[in-house]
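ok, trying the design again with the full structure, not the truncated one.
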């Protein structure tokens, strides 16, 4: 594994871990899965933009590290003098070194930027690898039939479905009530 990537992984992991332990109340430690960091680099390994996972408990929204990094890069695209389609590599790291393979939503997000950025290689932390980092081409991630759906998105989806069911129950109840009152007045 490229030394530049290993160094970048170590620096980012330390910084993020320090930030989280300083800023996160202890009761939120359960959210350690959210300690993801992503850096978009040129194919030579020069960092262009960073992102980290965020979540809001009030409206159940979340932004993954990869999505944030691309959003940020897009904001400073002109400033950085990026014109046309740029070849980039990605490094995604979990502060505990756990598997941080991009999820299906993030892959979709990267595909939506395909006219601006051509993602070539994706490096992600994985404890099963001797170097702690797995390397994969973006196209192999896209073509992976077993894409990972993040637990937060699954949770969010479940909430939406439950909400829809509840609405259905209420509208059905109202319909029944209307029908009953019609029948009664007849
Ligand atoms: Zn994701």
């Amino acid at each position: 594994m490229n030394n530049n990537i290993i160094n970048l992984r170590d620096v980012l992991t330390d910084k993020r871990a320090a930030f989280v332990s300083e800023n996160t109340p202890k009761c939120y430690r359960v959210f350690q899965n959210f300690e993801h960091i992503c850096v978009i680099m040129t194919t030579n390994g020069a960092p262009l933009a960073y992102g980290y996972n965020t979540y809001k408990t009030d409206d159940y929204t979340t932004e993954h590290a990869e999505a944030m990094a691309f959003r940020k890069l897009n904001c400073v695209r002109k400033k950085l003098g990026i014109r046309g389609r740029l070849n980039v590599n990605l490094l995604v790291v979990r502060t505990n070194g756990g598997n941080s393979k991009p999820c299906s939503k993030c892959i979709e997000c990267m595909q939506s930027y395909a006219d601006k950025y051509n993602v070539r290689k994706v490096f992600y932390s994985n404890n099963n690898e001797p170097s702690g980092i797995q390397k994969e081409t973006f196209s192999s991630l896209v073509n992976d039939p077993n894409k990972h759906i993040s637990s937060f998105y699954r949770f969010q989806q479940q909430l939406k479905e439950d909400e829809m069911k509840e609405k259905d129950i209420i509208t059905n109840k109202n319909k029944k009530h209307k029908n009953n009152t019609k029948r009664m007045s007849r």
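Keeping the full-length input from now on. The mean pLDDT is 85.
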